[in-house]
Design a protein that fits this description.
The structure holds 2 protein chains of 2 kinds. Helices cover about 35% and strands about 25% of the residues of chain A. By secondary structure, chain A is an alpha+beta fold. Chain A has a single domain (about 15-390), classed as tRNA-splicing ligase RtcB, CATH 3.90.1860.10. In chain A, strands 1, 2, 3, 5, 9, 10, 12 and 13 form an 8-stranded mixed β-sheet that branches. In chain A, α3 (about 55-70) crosses α7. In chain B, about 20% of the residues lie in helices and about 30% in strands. Chain B contains 2 helices and 6 strands. Chain B is globular. At the A-B interface, α6, β4, α7, β6 and β7 of A face α1, α2, β4, β5 and β6 of B.
Chain lengths: ~400, ~90
């Protein structure tokens, strides 16, 4: 793996779809559903999709994000209310994205990718906050679909391109960096501005990607459950830098909030939230590791005074991928999970071993700590039925 | 991670005041068990982030924080517009 690509999945994020189905509905067709999702959702290293983008469509996608995807027939206009930035990150500048980054993305739209990215069919197994769960449309026993992925090759390439550029430019801007790996550039400098334009294009790429995957998922469900609608609950990223107004020294100021592996968690009443969600606060979608549980939390009012309305993003690795492959074999992990009624579909046995449940911290402990620290409030627990893994 | 260096700000928040090159404190949100289990690298990286120009309130780490390239995964930082830095590693 390219060192330059590590931790570089711009706008990697999670979205959850409400199916209106119950576990009983799904159980009778579970295997067939798992197989058709695996056939229709491209997954794995370098996986390619059915959407191929040449210029100028690539630039239109990078400018328009999920709004572009909807205009191309992927999903519905009402989905956009349930996506950060209404589905389109303003200020994206496709011309700041290198040709190499665009080339890498040309055939990768509508694909999950690898690593811990996945699509899961999950059951709501516990509700902690009935009022908020009601507003979110979540009931005990409901089945939801959660998609976790990001900006694929394009985002990684943007990261690699600008790391290099910022390391070279740092002395010019008289920036004393604590460590070379933290290569930075002043916001108002040409390098900083270029990066912002490119990174925002990367955010749109991730939003468009998850929107296309949603369309593919809906097609599969329509085949098995013709009346299921799969409404979008919410889509939120956990690798971004955004300009947001926050209280600092008793004054509201625009800040560049960097969240790397942290989920934005706006509290009730935030103007960015659509009318239906405003009373509850923003859904904070926390993906567990493969085969373990996931959680839905809600943003709190107190969170703004803590870490600028931010919360956790997942379980967090407890050991390296290498260590995990030493301890587990993919086949053995899959069989064990199948024994517990969880169907795994993946092109890579090694990938399954890398993502073995034991290679991650306990997501429940992580989420409970976030709740106790008032970063976000626990609403519901989800357990997997089917997992398509990259 | 050795927790003796932290002040316990609340049951689930641990703080280190700025020292040396740090421009802001480090705050890690976690239960005692989670922070004890955290890699020392998380603190080292959060301290480095606290030294970046433009940071004011704190360099934060979430309960799921772990080592990342340059910047911890599970890290939150901010910068003010005037004199600041923007870091691709932090995204």
């Amino acid at each position: 793996m390219s060192a330059g690509g590590v931790g570089f999945d711009i706008s990697c994020g999670v979205r959850t779809l409400l199916t209106g189905l119950t576990r009983k509905d799904v159980e009778s067709v579970k295997k067939a559903l798992a197989d058709s999702l695996y056939r229709q959702i491209p997954a794995g290293v370098g996986s390619t999709g059915r959407v191929h983008l040449e210029r100028p469509d690539m630039d239109a996608m990078l400018r328009g994000g999920a709004q572009w995807a909807v205009s191309q027939g992927f999903g519905f206009a009402e989905d956009l209310n349930r996506i950060e930035e209404h589905g389109c990150m303003n200020g994206a500048e496709p011309e700041r994205v290198s040709e190499q980054a665009k080339r890498r993305q040309k055939d990768e739209m509508g694909t999950l990718g690898s690593g811990n990215h996945y699509l899961e069919v999950q059951e709501v197994t516990r509700v902690y906050d009935g009022r908020i769960a009601g507003i979110y449309g979540l009931r005990h026993g409901d089945v939801v679909v959660t998609i976790h992925c990001g900006s694929r090759g394009l985002g990684h390439q943007i990261g690699a391109d600008f790391l290099k550029e910022m390391v070279v430019a740092a002395p010019k801007y008289h920036l004393e960096l604590p460590e070379r790996e933290l290569a930075s550039a002043p916001i108002n400098s040409p390098t900083g501005q270029k990066y912002l334009g490119a990174m925002r294009a990367g955010i749109n790429c991730a939003l468009a990607n998850r929107q296309i995957l949603t369309h593919l998922t809906r097609k599969v469900f329509a085949h098995h459950f013709p009346t299921a609608k799969l409404a979008l609950l919410y889509d939120v990223s956990h690798n971004t830098c955004k300009v947001e107004e926050h209280l600092l020294d008793n004054k509201r100021r625009p800040l560049y909030v960097h969240r790397k592996g942290a989920t934005r968690a706006f509290g009730p009443g935030h103007p960015e939230l659509c009318a239906e969600l405003r009373a509850a606060g923003q859904p904070v979608l926390i993906g567990g590791s493969m085969g373990t549980c996931s959680y839905i939390l809600a943003g709190t009012t107190e969170s703004e005074g803590e870490a600028f309305s931010s919360a956790v993003h997942g379980a967090g690795r407890a050991m390296s991928r290498h260590e995990a492959t030493r301890r587990w074999q993919g086949r053995q992990v899959m069989d064990e999970l199948a024994g517990r009624g969880i169907l795994i579909r993946s092109p890579s046995a090694r990938g399954v071993a890398e993502e073995a449940p034991g290679a991650y911290k306990d997501v429940s402990a992580v989420v409970e700590a976030a709740d106790h620290a008032h970063l976000a409030r626990m609403v519901a627990k989800l357990e997997p039925l089917i997992c398509v893994k990259g | 991670m050795d927790i003796s260096r932290f002040t316990r700000q609340s049951e689930f928040a641990w703080r280190i005041e700025p020292a040396g090159k740090m421009r802001a404190p480090v705050v890690i949100y976690a239960s005692e068990e989670l922070i004890r289990d955290m890699d020392d690298k998380v603190l080292e990286q959060a301290v480095n982030v606290a030294a970046l120009p433009g940071i004011k309130k704190a360099s934060f780490a979430m309960p799921d924080a772990h080592w990342g390239y340059g910047f911890p995964v599970g890290g939150v930082a901010h910068s003010m517009r005037t004199k600041t830095a923007l870091c691709p590693r932090a995204v």
